[in-house]
Each structure stands twice: as structure tokens, then as C-alpha cells.
């Protein structure tokens, strides 16, 4: 019997961290964010990994960056997503300020997130500076997905959501990716870096790379679900591809409803009750 992990769409068994690791260099790992039970139900059969991203702060809560995400926010959305998943591996993003202080702080908060959401792993931002923390967590039973390149929680240091790892900065991002793999991360997100650099890192590192604004050569890809559905319209990075325009569809549906209420054409005869109706 083959031991090669299968893509999410071919099986119903819940995927594990070792299943994702086993996909290094094989079929692309399909990842997407989700923040609610219905979203989780929609993505589950098609994705290998679902991330409850701290992007929830921007796309659901209307905040200007992910810096405003809180532990309570991540736990509430994480628990909702858990209820909608049967097979995809669930990872929860650790919010800004919940893990950077010390390995002990990180362990305490990651353990709480895992216990209260039922996620299989956590994601933390940062490369070389998070080496000790990643080792501390993985040695104590917490699988870590790392995130290097553009790390949005550092937006105030970068001065915007800028491309990272350009020419003389490439070595820093390469060293970050090497450090997190060495520390025990099971995978690494590469965000908004030049494609050639992402390809090089993917070839060099023994763990799966998950690209967002990186390269098709990465071991997997991730995007924010509201970006692919067109329900987040605040701004649109170059790396986003829209697969639907549900934002526009929603506005059109609401406008049609409002017009019908004003014209008294809704509710129609089929939407109201009469004495003879069975209760439905
Ligand atoms: O918060 C998020 O959604 C993310 C990714 C898209 C990688 O970190």
C-alpha cells in the first residue's frame, strides 16, 4: 500500500501534520483561510489545510491591519471553523503580542488556542528571531507553521505591506526560512517575496513552503478567502486572483430586497401564512 499522502479531495480521513510534511515536493498543498462554520464547510472538501488567519481582523472586523487581532478573537473564530471541518488540517494564527515576549508566553497562549479551538497547529510570524520559541513549542507538542518574508504583524516596522527579500535583502529571508525549519517548524509561509527567491527557498528547505505572493514552485499556495470571493474590497494585492464577485452579488441582492420591500412586492403571497397552512 502506498504511504504517499493524498490530496484532500480524494479521501475523508482528517489530514494530520505528518500528512502535510509528507507532501513536500509532491502534489501542491491547497490552503485557504476561513473564519466561520459555513466558510469551513465550503472549503473543507477542497483544501488540505485551513488557516484561521489573523486577517480576520481586517476582512471580518474592519480593522486597518492584523495588529488589532486578539487572542479571544482567534479563539472564537477558531472554534467556529473547527465545527465546519471534517478533513482539512486546521491551523490558527497566533495574534500580535501573544507569543513574542518569551517562549513561555508563547507556550501558554498556543496551548490555550489548541485546547479551546481544537486546531492541530498554530502559525507564528518571524524567522531567526523566533527560532528559540519555535523549538520550545515543537519540543512540547505544539506543531508550528512559520511565516517569513512579509509578516503583516510587522507592518509598522516595514512602513507598509512591502515586497520583502529584494536583491541584497534576499539573504535575510533565506536565513529566516532556514532558521524556522531548523527549529522544527513543520511548514513555512513565504509571503510577498520575489518568485526566484521563493523557488530557491523551496528547493533548499526540507519542509513544505506555502506561497502567498511567492512562486508557483512552492509546495502549496494560500490566499485569504474573502480575497478570492471578492467580499473584501479594501485593497487588492497583485498576488490576489478573484474567483468570484460575491461582494457585488451581495450588494445587488440587498438592493433588490430593499426595492421590493419599498414597493410592497415582498413578502409575496407565497411568503405569508394563512389559517389553513401547516406550520413550517
Ligand atoms: O492571516 C492570514 O490570513 C495569513 C495568510 C494569508 C498567510 O497569515
Structure report:
- With 280 residues, the protein is an alpha/beta fold.
- It is built from eleven helices and eight strands.
- Strands 1-2-3-4-5-6-7-8 form an eight-stranded parallel beta barrel, surrounded by six helices.
- Helix 5 (103-117) links the parallel strand 3 (89-93) and strand 4 (121-125).
- Helix 2 packs across helix 4, helix 4 packs parallel to helix 5 and helix 6 packs parallel to helix 8.
- The longest helix has 17 residues, at 246-262.
- Mean pLDDT is 95; it is low at 1-6.
- 3-methyl-2-oxobutanoic acid (KIV) binds at residues 33, 51, 53-55, 66, 93, 189, 212, 222, 224.
Cα-atom radius of gyration: 21 Å
Helical content band: 25-40%
Ligand roster:
3-methyl-2-oxobutanoic acid
DSSP strand count:
8
* Terminal-residue CA separation: 51 Å
Count of alpha/pi helices: 11
Give the structural class: alpha/beta
Proportion of β residues?
Answer: 5-15%
Low-confidence stretches: 1-6
Strand line-up of the largest beta sheet: 1-2-3-4-5-6-7-8
Shape: globular
User: Mean pLDDT score, rounded?
Assistant: 95
The major beta sheet can be summarized as: 8 strands, parallel, barrel
Q: Provide the succession of SSEs.
A: HEHEHHEHEHEHHEHEEHH
Amino acid at each position: 500500500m502506498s504511504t504517499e499522502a493524498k490530496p484532500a479531495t480524494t479521501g475523508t480521513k482528517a489530514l494530520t501534520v505528518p500528512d502535510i510534511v509528507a507532501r513536500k515536493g509532491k502534489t501542491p498543498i491547497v490552503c485557504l483561510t476561513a473564519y466561520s462554520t459555513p466558510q469551513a464547510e465550503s472549503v473543507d472538501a477542497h483544501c488540505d489545510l485551513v488557516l484561521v488567519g489573523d486577517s480576520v481582523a481586517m476582512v471580518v472586523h474592519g480593522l486597518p491591519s492584523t495588529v488589532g487581532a486578539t487572542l479571544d478573537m482567534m479563539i472564537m473564530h477558531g472554534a467556529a471553523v473547527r465545527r465546519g471541518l471534517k478533513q482539512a488540517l486546521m491551523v490558527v494564527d497566533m495574534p500580535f503580542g501573544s507569543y513574542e515576549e518569551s517562549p513561555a508566553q508563547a507556550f501558554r497562549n498556543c496551548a490555550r488556542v489548541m485546547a479551546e479551538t481544537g486546531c492541530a497547529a498554530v502559525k507564528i510570524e518571524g524567522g531567526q528571531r523566533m527560532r528559540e520559541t519555535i523549538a520550545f513549542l515543537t519540543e512540547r507538542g505544539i506543531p508550528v507553521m512559520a511565516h517569513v518574508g512579509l509578516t503583516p504583524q510587522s507592518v509598522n516596522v516595514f512602513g507598509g505591506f512591502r515586497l520583502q527579500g529584494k536583491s541584497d535583502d534576499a539573504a535575510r529571508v533565506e536565513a529566516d526560512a532556514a532558521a524556522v525549519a531548523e527549529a522544527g517548524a513543520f511548514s513555512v509561509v513565504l509571503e510577498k517575496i520575489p518568485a526566484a527567491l521563493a523557488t530557491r527557498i523551496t528547493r533548499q528547505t526540507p519542509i513544505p513552503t506555502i506561497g502567498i505572493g511567492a512562486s508557483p514552485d512552492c509546495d502549496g499556495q494560500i490566499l485569504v478567502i474573502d480575497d478570492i470571493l471578492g467580499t473584501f474590497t479594501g485593497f487588492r494585492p497583485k498576488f490576489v486572483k478573484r474567483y468570484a464577485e460575491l461582494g457585488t452579488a451581495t450588494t445587488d441582492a440587498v438592493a433588490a430586497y430593499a426595492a421590493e420591500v419599498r414597493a410592497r412586492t415582498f413578502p409575496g403571497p407565497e411568503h405569508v401564512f394563512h389559517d389553513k397552512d401547516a406550520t413550517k
